[in-house]
UniProtKB/TrEMBL annotation:
Entry EC number(s): 3.5.1.2
GO molecular function: glutaminase activity; lyase activity
Listed NCBIfam families: PLP_synth_Pdx2
Superkingdom assignment: Eukaryota
Binding residues annotated for L-glutamine, in chain numbering: G47, E48, S49, R109, I143, R144
InterPro entries assigned: Class_I_gatase-like, PdxT/SNO, PdxT/SNO_CS
The reaction(s) this protein catalyses: L-glutamine + H2O = L-glutamate + NH4(+)
Catalytic site: C79, H203, E205
Protein name stated in the entry: glutaminase
Length: 252
């Protein structure tokens, strides 16, 4: 059985492991730097990013995480994990937090507001649908979520989300039209890929839709093909499945 590491310092690591299990892939908890040597791909889950950063610093995880990313090993960050992977983060608490980096983007840490402003929404993701099947939208669960404001030239945008343009005007002058008037709506980026790095501002692990996990498994498989056998067991069907799960706190 294939093995994917899941950083288990804080946050929704159990939910990621359960989603991987449904796809026939074993997820193992990673809490110490040396444990990263036993896996070839890694998920950094959602949670409270400042707390996760303090725990990662306490366990001396940052050097090992940065080395993991720099070596081109597949890494997926969801919500707080996305913040970890960004090269630049704004909207941080006083004193900021350490970042792993590697993803050429600028992220706003709490763009969508506080915990009580968390929400669910249908988000268009044609690239996901083309690779994994199913509808072109997925149910995005945004919990005190970040948003990506800018990306570098090598970053592929996989999904974005409409927001009022005035919520972006203080960050990006591009939301103004040629007449100098602010448009009524703009968009922020909520899912990206840059080589072997995947980042999502939402929580796929809290839904019944396992396509994002399948997408990442295939990324890890592409990387593993260069040095080892396939990550995905031949007889495991990782196609889209909308059935209710009994072992996950799913949102409908």
């Amino acid at each position: 059985m294939a093995i994917i590491g899941v950083l288990a310092l804080q946050g929704s690591f159990n939910e990621h492991i359960a989603a991987l299990r449904r796809l026939g892939v074993k997820g193992v908890e990673i809490r110490k730097p040396e444990q990263l040597q036993n896996v070839t791909s890694l998920i950094i889950p959602g949670g409270e990013s400042t707390t996760m950063a303090k725990l990662a610093e306490y366990h001396n995880m940052f050097p090992a995480l940065r080395e993991f990313v720099e070596k081109g090993k597949p890494v997926w960050g969801t919500c707080a994990g996305l913040i970890f992977l960004a090269d630049k983060a704004i909207g941080q608490k006083t004193g900021g937090q350490q970042l792993v980096g590697g993803l050429d983007c600028t992220i706003h840490r709490n763009f969508f507001g506080s915990q009580i402003q968390s929400f669910e929404a249908e988000v268009l993701a044609p690239e996901l649908a083309s690779k994994e099947g199913g509808p072109e939208t997925f149910r995005g669960v945004f919990i005190r979520a970040p948003a990506i404001l800018e990306v570098g030239p090598e970053v592929q945008v996989l999904a974005d989300y409409p927001v009022p343009a005035n919520s972006l005007s203080s960050f990006d002058s591009s939301v103004e039209d040629q007449k100098g008037n602010v448009e009524e709506q703009s968009k922020v980026i909520v899912a990206v890929r840059q080589g072997s790095i995947l980042g999502t501002a939402f929580h796929p692990e809290l839904t019944a839709d396992t396509r994002w996990h399948s997408y990442f498994i295939k990324m890890a498989n592409e990387n593993g093909d260069e040095a080892s056998s396939s990550l995905v067991p031949v007889e495991v069907d990782i196609s889209y499945n909308k059935k209710q799960l009994s072992d996950l706190p799913v949102f409908q």
